[in-house]
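Homework help thread (please don't just give me the answer)

Our assignment gives two proteins as sequence + structure token strings and asks us to describe the second one. The first is just a warm-up. Here they are:
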Amino acid sequence: MGQDEQPVAETADPRGERVVLLPSVWTGKMVRDHPEVAAHLTAVLHVVATPDHVTPDPQIAARTRYYGHGVGPSRWLLVVVSYEQDPARIVSAFANRKDPRSWSA
């Protein structure tokens, strides 16, 4: 985390690890690339803290995908957390209509 970049928000993941959301990620990437999440900051944090489904990221081992069902702007809200640094950082969030591949209701 840059010295002058204070988190927009923070939460804890299900294991109790601190997870932050930096302004450069929130406004510089997520809201720009996925404007549907702009009004759902609270839901993004909630999904990390109490996810309905969790999977490892298939591309980067130090990342985890947290899914919230029925929260946010669509059927699922997917939030990606990077554990490549301390504290962990939310690096992406977006709406998804499809169930995760490993999901079983």
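The one we have to describe:
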Amino acid sequence: MQNQNNLSNAQLELLNMFKRPLAEEDLKAIKRLITAYLAEKLNKVADKNWEEKSWTEEDMKRLLDAHLRTPYNNK
């Protein structure tokens, strides 16, 4: 959901929460907390997909060795 300023609800909430200046140490700690939260959420999604697809270690090795990039076409 976006408002007329193209800010998301999360961005607006963060702006409201941090109206006062923060020490650099606090800002870094908040960034680490948000990063850890998002990483944990991503791991849960990856684990769920892994189990749903019944992937094995061999599948992981094959994925790691795959070259899935689209070739660059110089026109």
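TA reply:
I won't write it for you, but here's a hint about the kind of observation we're looking for: Helices lie at 9-17, 24-52, 57-65.
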